[in-house]
């Protein structure tokens, strides 16, 4: 029922959904109303897409674990509000959470750390605050988007053991402290975005060990000290080149405006086998936009353009000393713009 102009209150749709419904896609319509416990507990939903509608109100306070546990929940771009419920941490099969572009507030419940099957987390563009929990058992997570919230405090050991992490986007929060020296444990990291926070101190040399890094944005922080010459050890190879050999790497949809990320290899129930090819590898659309500002203008990259990009932005910090000559050896780099020099004395 996606991509129509359908409208109704969600509760009125309940008679249409039997207990055998395991896949529901209501995306890009004009549905409204709140999500009742009856709606969640009555069906056998494994894949739930409610994104890009007018749903509102808080999520239910409880969820029955007697029904099959969902694998994917996408309720992005609605008007949901209130706190993130703790029962989400009990959904042991959950691989995808996209609650971005809503009005959620409060902290991320510590129960989220129990989601050891989680691969994709997007809570961006909400009103979440407090510190990011230090989850040490999210071994499978590959994409984290928490930008444009009000998270504060140091990173501590958030995602400390997430060696499969490809994208970490924490832009435009209020995070403090240093870039952690355990960053090298994120050996698969390709996109690291920490722009517009309050990070300070020296860049750790462990950053130089991120061999898969393509895009690094540390601009608009309070980082200081000398730039590590070992940054030249990072090839900054464009993402599309890596995709030729790394099948689990981030892949960008062939559109100009959005990116798609394949999630998991989950087998579905036998019903609806005509959908199996399309749904075997569920896809979440990511509206990732990466911005670079130079003395000559403002550049914004998204969708297919990101496929071709590699870049570094260290501008608007407090770095001192000379630019290491070794940085001239970063031959894979496609965007080392003038803006990165704004914080560097010459």
UniProtKB/TrEMBL annotation:
Domain of life per record: Eukaryota
Keywords from the UniProt entry: Cell membrane, Glycoprotein, Leucine-rich repeat, Membrane, Repeat, Signal
GO CC term, one of those recorded: plasma membrane
Pfam families in alphabetical order: LRR_1, LRR_8
Gene3D superfamilies: Ribonuclease Inhibitor
Subcellular localization(s) per the UniProt record: Cell membrane
Family recorded in the similarity comment: Belongs to the RLP family.
Protein's name in the database: Leucine-rich repeat-containing N-terminal plant-type domain-containing protein
Species whose genome carries this gene: Turnera subulata
């Amino acid at each position: 029922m996606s991509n129509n102009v359908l409208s109704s209150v969600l509760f009125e749709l309940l008679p249409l959904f039997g207990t055998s419904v395991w896949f529901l896609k209501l995306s890009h319509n004009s549905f409204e109303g709140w999500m009742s416990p009856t709606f969640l507990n009555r069906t056998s939903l494994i894949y739930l897409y409610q994104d890009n509608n007018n749903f509102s109100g808080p999520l239910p306070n409880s969820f029955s674990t007697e029904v099959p546990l969902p694998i994917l929940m996408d309720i992005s771009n609605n008007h949901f509000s209130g706190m993130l419920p703790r029962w989400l941490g009990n959904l042991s099969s959950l691989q995808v959470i996209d609650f971005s572009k809503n009005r959620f507030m409060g902290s991320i419940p510590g129960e989220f750390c129990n989601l050891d099957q989680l691969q994709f987390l997007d809570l961006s563009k909400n009103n979440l605050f407090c510190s990011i929990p230090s989850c040490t058992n999210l071994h499978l997570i590959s994409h984290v988007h928490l930008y444009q919230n009000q998270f504060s405090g140091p990173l501590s050991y958030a995602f400390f053991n997430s060696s499969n992490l490809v994208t970490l986007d924490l832009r435009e929060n209020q995070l403090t402290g240093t870039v952690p020296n355990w960053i090298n444990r994120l050996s698969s990291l390709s996109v690291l975005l920490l722009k517009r926070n309050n990070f300070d101190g020296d860049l750790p040399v462990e950053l130089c060990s991120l061999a898969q890094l393509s895009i690094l944005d540390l601009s608009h922080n309070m980082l200081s000290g000398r730039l590590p010459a070992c940054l030249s050890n990072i090839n900054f190879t464009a993402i599309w080149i890596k995709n030729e050999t790394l099948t689990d790497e981030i892949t960008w949809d062939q559109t100009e405006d959005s990116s798609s990320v394949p999630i998991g290899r989950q087998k579905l129930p036998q019903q609806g086998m005509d959908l199996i090819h399309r749904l075997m590898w569920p896809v979440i659309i990511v509206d990732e936009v990466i911005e670079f500002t130079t003395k000559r203008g403002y550049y914004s990259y998204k969708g297919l353009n990101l496929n071709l990009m590699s870049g570094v932005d260290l501008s608007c910090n407090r770095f001192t000393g000379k630019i290491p000559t070794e940085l001239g050896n970063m031959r894979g780099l496609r965007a080392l713009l003038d803006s990165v020099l704004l914080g560097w004395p010459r």
